[in-house]
Design brief:
125 residues, mainly alpha, globular
Length: 125
């Protein structure tokens, strides 16, 4: 699967309409290339203040359902965890876009958190 993030600056337009236009633009730009490689494409469109597009919301629900089944936890608990992680990731990305990185690229850690039941939900509580 290929996911694409699009930042939308919302002005005086309806936020839902702006997000739908962003999703449509992303699909028009990337869908054919993904389908030619036999890949699924989901545009992950987020506004500057954290509103998720319809397909991004559906993706979050799908990830939550799969993780809830894998971890054998209630869907509501896992969905809260996924929402919190997405909110933090969006906030960090927006901050980096606006301010830039203050850490030299050579000293950055490329360690990523693991999506396992024992480590992830224990930190969320």
């Amino acid at each position: 699967m290929v996911y694409s993030i699009c930042w939308i600056a919302i002005s005086r337009k309806d936020p839902d309409k702006v997000l739908r236009n962003g999703e449509r633009d992303k699909k028009r730009k990337y869908l054919d290339a993904c389908l030619s490689q036999r890949r699924h494409f989901t545009p992950f469109v987020v506004s500057a203040d954290g509103l998720l597009g319809a397909e991004a919301e559906a993706l979050a629900k799908r990830i939550s359902a799969l993780l809830a089944a894998k971890w054998e936890r209630p869907y509501s608990v896992v969905r809260g965890y996924v929402n919190a992680r997405l909110s933090l990731a969006i906030l960090r990305a927006r901050h980096l876009c606006m301010r830039g990185s203050r850490v030299p690229a050579g000293t950055m850690s490329y360690r990523r958190s693991l999506w396992d039941a024992d480590g992830a939900l224990a930190l969320f509580r």
